[in-house]
Write a structure and sequence with these properties.
This is DUF1440 domain-containing protein. Helices cover 74% and strands 0% of the residues. By secondary structure, it is mostly helical. The chain has one domain. Helix 1 packs antiparallel against helix 5. About 3% of the residues have low confidence.
């Protein structure tokens, strides 16, 4: 069933919400596998965005939350907000899901490294070091995985040659 950009009906929300959750969870699982197992091999650091959540909650609310709670928050936000961002790019630009995923992945990486990291006191883009480079691969890769799930679920076909 192709995804239409018209106003969402209750039927389309019944289709869209499970698709968002499925794409989000699959993409987040791919991100975590990359962050913990592949990133250290390719770039050195393990990606631990939960530490960003800990710093943000401390700065914004004066709260000290445990790593496990920060991990759950990051996973949950990523599993919902990232696929919604991909859908928004897809619907606003009419780009294929794969390209919309790349665009959304770059935007979300920039928000994390270029805006949120400096907000908590780290340098802009963390000086483009290994962590930032690996974060780029992780964010864009995760968004591509989510976009591929959407492509399959919504029947986006490859262009015929």
């Amino acid at each position: 069933m192709p995804l239409q950009s018209s106003a969402a009906s209750s039927h389309s929300l019944r289709v869209l919400l499970p698709a968002v959750v499925l794409a989000g969870v699959v993409g987040e699982l791919a991100f975590e596998a990359y962050a913990w197992f592949v990133s250290p091999i390719l770039f050195g650091p393990v990606l631990e965005p939960a530490n960003l959540v800990i710093a943000l909650t401390s700065k914004l609310f004066g709260l000290s939350i445990p790593y496990s709670a920060a991990f759950a928050i990051h996973f949950s936000v990523g599993a919902i907000a990232f696929p919604v961002a991909i859908l928004a790019v897809h619907l606003m630009t009419r780009l294929k899901f794969l390209i919309a995923g790349v665009v959304a992945g770059v935007l979300l990486w920039y928000i994390a490294q270029g805006m949120l990291a400096p907000f908590i006191g780290r340098s802009f883009m963390m000086d483009f070091g290994a962590y930032t480079q690996s974060s780029f691969v992780g964010h864009v890769g995760m968004a591509i995985v989510m976009a591929l799930v959407f492509s399959v679920l919504f029947g986006e076909r490859k262009a015929k040659r």
